[in-house]
Amino acid sequence: MHVAPDDPSIIAEMEEKGSAQVRLLMQSGAWSPHLNAIAVKWLREKDIETQRISELSQAEQISIAREAKDAAVAASVAAERAAMAAERQAIAAEGANRRATIALVIAALSIATAVVSIAIPYLTAVGSHP
Prior knowledge:
The chain is mainly alpha-helical. The chain has helices spanning 8-17, 19-28, 36-128.
């Protein structure tokens, strides 16, 4: 039985087999020669569709890569700001430590002065009694 090239079942058969299998059948001569023209047209359409899908995929991948780069730049800027804030806090803490050390030295001198001011009258009183 002879099948017409415009028969929808031919397209359905090619869709079922897939483009790789149809190509293989054509190359091996297992595909009916009077259907080659429709197969070539169908394969060309499939190739164009595959190319379009590939280009869309590449465009999407490029877009995702750009978004990832932008996010990385934003994260880098945030990390730099955090590092600068930490540095400012470290400098402030050093100043606070310095002031606390000075306060401790003053307190120690005050204690020493107080001990001396208490000890002098006592020692003077003990030394004047026979």
